[in-house]
Amino acid sequence: MLDFFFEGFIENINLQDSSNWAKDFFQNVVMPRLPEAVAGHLPVEVGTILVMLVCAGIFVAVVPLLPLVLVLAERKVAARFQNRTGPMRVGPWGTLQTLADGVKLIFKEDYIPPQGDKILFMLAPYVIFACSFAVFAAIPFGQDILVSEFNIGIFYIMAISSVIVMGVIMAGWSSNSKWSLLGSLRSAAQIVSYEIPLGLSILTIVMLVGSLSMKEIVASQDGGIFTWLIFRSPFTFIAFFIFFISAIAEVNRTPFDLPEAESEIVAGFHTEYSGMRFALFFIAEYANMFAVSAIGVTLFLGGYEGILPGYDFLGGLPGFIIKSLGLVFIMMWLRWTLPRLRVDQLMNLCWKYFIPISFFNIFGTGIWGLIFDTDDVWSIGISCVIIYVGLISAYAVAGRNLARKPEPQPSSA
Amino acid sequence: MESTQQTESRIIELKPFTDEMIVNMGPQHPSTHGVLRLELRLDGEIVREAIPHIGYLHRCFEKHSENLSYPQIIPFTDRMDYVAAMNQNWGFCLAVEKLLEADETKDFEVPERAEYLRVLICELNRIASHLLSFGTYGMDIGAFTPFLYAFRDRERLLLLFEKVCGARLTYNYIRIGGVSEIIPLEPGSVAEQNYLDEIEEFLDYFEPKIDEYNDLLTSNSIFSERTMGVAVMPAEMAISYGATGPNLRGSGVDWDLRRDEPYSIYDRFEFDVPVAKDIPELGAVVGDCWSRYKVRMDEMKESVKIVRQILAEGLPDGPVMADLKAVRPPQGEIYFRSEAPRGELGFYIVSDGTPKPVRVKGRSPCFSALSALQELSRGLMVADIIAIIGSIDIVMGEVDR
Amino acid sequence: MNAEEIHQILSDKFGESVLGYDTELAGDTCIQIAPTAILEVCQYLAETDTLAFDSLMCLSGVDMGVKEEELSVVYHLYAMQHRQSIVLKTSVPKTDAHLPTVSHIWKTADWHERETYDLYGIVFEGHTDLRRILLPDDWEGYPLRKDYQEPDFYRGMRVPY
Question: What is the mean pLDDT of residues A194-215?
Answer without folding.
Answer: 87
